[in-house]
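Weekend entry, working from home. Most of the wet-lab plans are on hold until the incubator is repaired, so I used the time to fold the two sequences that have been sitting in the queue since the last round of cloning. Logging both here for the record. First:
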Amino acid sequence: MARQFSELDLKTQMEIAVKVGAAMKRHDINAKVDLYREEVCQFTGEDVKGRMMLKVEKVLPSVQKEKAEKFNADEEVKKIKEEYGGVSISVSTQLGAGDDYQVITNVTTIEDPNTKVNLDHTPGKVMFIDFWATWCPPCQKPMQHNQDMLNEHGAKWGDNV
């Protein structure tokens, strides 16, 4: 069972924070290491419970996926995350406008449920992906809007969308 970060003395907590900071520096991750105290109590109760927490959150651009993976695979980072409760270290990536995306694999086509395709980006083409459910009332209006756009602009767009 993991030891609770808040049960450690302040010197040990600071040493762990410094180790996390050193790992971020090794992997060229620029993020803030937050050490903070949480206080919790019930409105009707008299007991106040507190605990110290360590938190790192960083979302990198998708082109830095390898950097995030190396940081998350760092043995010291993994050990700290496993060894202490009350420690939250999250370095991830997220797609942004204009980013290349990973190939979406094994997509079932509408035409043939037994056919699986991959969705690759072709430079110069726009890919419009919309997730919806036909039975979902809030989805039906946007679905109709998308169909109307295709009907109105489809000839002009040709094979580019």
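Second, folded right after the first finished:
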Amino acid sequence: MRMIKIQEAGGPEELVIEEAPIPRALAGTVVVRVRAFGINRAEVYMRQGAWGQCADVTGIECVGEVHEDGDQRLCAGQRVFALMGGMGRSIRGSYAEYVRVPRSNVVLIDSELPWEVLAAIPESYATAYSCLISTLGLQPGQTLLVRAGTSSLGQAAIDVAVHRGARVFATTRSAERAPLIERMGAIAVYDDSLPSSVDAVLDLIGTSTLVHSMSLCRRGGRVCVAGFLGGHAGLDRLDPVLDLPSGVHLSVFASLLLGKPGFELSSIPFQAFVDRAEAGVYRIAPARVFAMGQIVEAHRLMESDQANGKLVVLTGEDLPASP
């Protein structure tokens, strides 16, 4: 099989294609024939070495077919999502034509959607759902502010929240990106015109905006930090008495929790995500699709902050025709 290996910590050029044996399924694992995988900011940090020692093959999610089940519960050819479970961190990840994954992190799906569309779903929509429904407790009729609304996770959050019946505001840094947000049913806003007294904020920028996000909530409102698009840095100073508004609840969510005890994948309605995509209720589409041989270009685009949505890699040689 082909796999994309990190030669050493560094820039996108450190990603190279190599040959390797197809992994065999062990007890408690499933080998997935990877048809496509999404690219995530986490994989950039892994490639750079910013998160310490990680696997030499990165990738935290994919879509494909069962190749071999170590427990013989799943049948070869069944379509699945696979995500997290140490992929790219403690075990080789999804930047390959085959990947061995803990069976707790494999989800059966029923769909005929193209691989590149399915690959835009697993991590982004699972994280968005976990943040909005499980963490923020978003209810129909409430107001939500999504910071970094044109990111892949931001767009997934808009989809989930609009379908939930919330009134959604989403930030963008440029007027050119506002129509994307508005087509999804949200209201585009800018940093100098953010709404106040909202019920909830999903902050995907991180520590640089955390305190400000809390100031935008009503008393009893909630903030969930689930990204670090503004940089993966800690807070230099935080005075809880002076900086944090009384009565506003702060939580965090990290996708690495997905599949762990208390955050089982069975609690996330993946098939509903797929069904809504098929029905056009969720506006799921990759911003751009690459071949494996274009992985360096894909990572450069991710680092440029100009992706405007989910980047997807197909493991086959043929890319979909441009619309």
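Plan for Monday: verify the second prediction. DSSP finds nine helices and 15 strands in the chain.
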